[in-house]
């Protein structure tokens, strides 16, 4: 079995049947799997999955305070924009383009640390990065951890059901899995600790950074606008954290072919370019599947890419030392060539 086929922990219902077709579990099976995966009393190796949901639960009290004690239209708007624009764009910058695809490099680790903690932390890098490599390798096929063909809840619960690394990797396989994350600067377990904790990331480092990050940002928001602003911003982060789980479902046409001529050029998978995630986070998803290691994904006119603006600004400031930009190649292959063909008699 190829490494990419076994690096993730297979769900109890499996990826595919004997005919190689995707297994689509029932909603009941999905929730049963989810609660099994977050049960740290069953196995402490479930800590990464449990932490992902614990973060969401810990955001809930801030939301209750924001709505029932500090609510104003102004604070609601600020929190909403923080979630839908700032949190969303940061995910593209940090988790997507840097942590997974190494689309750019930092000139010094301090800039990496600042970018990593530019917003509230909501899930460990390990949950996103390893599984996203599998997603690109097996897009819309059995084994894709957030396969849109599996339905909305298949994607919504994928962070706990499908995105954890396997617990039975040998030492060579664990080294490969760790290699996906070494450049991010997180504290990585050795193989002996992996056998104990079932994760690439060190749990003490991961939890410690989470606590420090939230403490810092609550203090900053409080100093700027008091408890009301702090609770509103944490609420915005919670809404983003929940709603982002549906992105791959909608970003891959809800499991159906919905490519638009002249907009979606990669037909190898179901990914599509959508205006909302494009404008708010630079996630022009079909473009990204064409050029996954590009630091820019907004290639066509009006495809605004705030994530790229941040990366390029850091480059001009010297904080980013290098980046890959595939816009010119995209225009040459998919736009200019198309214009030339259409102009032929």
TrEMBL record:
Its main location: membrane. It comes from the Bacteria. One of its GO terms (molecular function) is oxidoreductase activity, acting on paired donors, with oxidation of a pair of donors resulting in the reduction of molecular oxygen to two molecules of water. Residues 77-293 form the Fatty acid desaturase domain. GO terms for cellular component: membrane. It is found in: Membrane. Coiled coil: none annotated. GO terms for biological process: fatty acid biosynthetic process. It is a multi-pass membrane protein. Belongs to the fatty acid desaturase type 2 family. This is Fatty acid desaturase. The lineage of its organism: Bacteria, Pseudomonadati, Bacteroidota, Cytophagia, Cytophagales.
């Amino acid at each position: 079995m190829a490494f990419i086929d076994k690096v993730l922990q297979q769900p109890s219902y499996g990826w595919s049947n004997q005919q190689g077709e995707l297994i689509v579990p029932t909603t009941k099976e999905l929730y049963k799997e989810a609660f099994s995966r977050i049960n740290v009393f069953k196995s402490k190796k479930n800590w990464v999955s449990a932490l992902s949901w614990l973060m969401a639960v810990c955001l809930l009290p801030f939301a209750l305070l924001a709505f029932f004690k500090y609510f104003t239209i102004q604070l609601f708007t600020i929190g909403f924009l923080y979630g839908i624009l700032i949190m969303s764009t940061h995910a593209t910058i940090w988790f997507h383009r840097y942590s997974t695809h190494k689309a750019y490099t930092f000139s010094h680790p301090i800039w990496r640390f600042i970018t990593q903690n530019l917003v509230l932390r909501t899930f460990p890098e390990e949950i996103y990065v390893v599984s996203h490599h599998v997603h690109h390798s097996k897009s819309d096929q059995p084994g894709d951890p957030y396969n849109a063909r599996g339905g909305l809840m298949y994607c919504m619960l994928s962070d706990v059901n499908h995105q954890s690394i396997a617990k039975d990797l040998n030492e060579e396989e664990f080294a490969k899995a760790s290699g996906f994350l070494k450049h991010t600067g997180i504290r990585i377990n050795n193989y002996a600790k992996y056998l104990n904790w079932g994760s690439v990331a060190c749990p003490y480092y991961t939890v410690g950074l989470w606590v420090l990050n939230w403490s810092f940002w609550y203090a900053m928001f409080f100093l700027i606008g008091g408890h009301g602003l702090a609770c509103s911003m944490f609420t915005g982060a919670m809404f983003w954290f929940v709603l982002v789980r549906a992105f791959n479902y909608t970003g891959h046409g809800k499991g159906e072919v919905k490519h638009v001529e002249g907009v979606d050029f990669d037909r190898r998978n179901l990914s599509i370019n959508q205006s909302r995630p494009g404008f708010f986070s630079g996630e022009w998803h079909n473009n990204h599947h064409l050029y996954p290691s590009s630091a820019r994904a907004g290639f066509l006119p009006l495809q605004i890419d705030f994530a790229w603006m941040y990366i390029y600004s850091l480059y001009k400031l010297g904080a980013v030392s290098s980046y890959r930009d595939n816009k010119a190649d995209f225009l040459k292959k998919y736009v200019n060539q198309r214009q030339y063909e259409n102009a032929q008699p």
